[in-house]
Amino acid sequence: MRATSLFYATQIEQCARNAADAALDNQRTMFLRAQAAWQLLADKETAAQTERDKRVPA
After folding, report:
1. What is the DSSP secondary-structure string of 21-34?
2. CA-angle at 28, arms to 22 and 34, nearest 5°
3. Any domain includes 52
4. pTM (2 d.p.)
5. Which residues lie closer than 8 Å to 49 by C-beta, 6 or more apart?
6. DSSP letter at 50?
7. Residue 31 pLDDT grade (very low, low, confident, very high; cuts 50, 70, 90)
8. Which range marks the domain in which residue 41 is found?
9. Dist. CA 7–CA 17, nearest whole Å
10. How far is it, in rounded angstroms, from Cα 28 to Cα 51?
11. CA nearest 11: which of 33, 25, 28?
């Protein structure tokens, strides 16, 4: 099952909230890195979906 863009968006938002709430710098950094990783996956999924949509005739 392919992860949806909604799932990725939820993960990105959760990481942002966790980073904002983090008391320690290393925790904040960890959550910000995780947020960036989820964003990268979301961007790749969006690009892949765009390419799939181009190949499927309307």
Report:
1. H-SSHHHHHHHHHH
2. 120
3. no
4. 0.85
5. 5
6. H
7. very high
8. 5-46
9. 15
10. 35
11. 33
